[in-house]
Amino acid sequence: MHMIIVGCGRVGSTIAKELQSQGHDVVVIDRKKDAFRRLGEDFAGRTVTGIGFDRTVLQEAGITSDSAVMAVTSGDNSNIMIARVAREMFGVQHVAARIYDPKRAAVYQRLGIPTVATVAWTSNQILSIVMPQQSAPTWTSPTSTHFVVERHVQASTAGRAIDEFTTDECRVVLLGRNGVSQIPPTSVLLQEGDVLHLLATSSGIETFDHAFTAHQGSHS
Question: Are residues 111 and 185 in contact, defined by beta-carbon separation less than 8 angstroms?
Answer without folding.
Answer: no
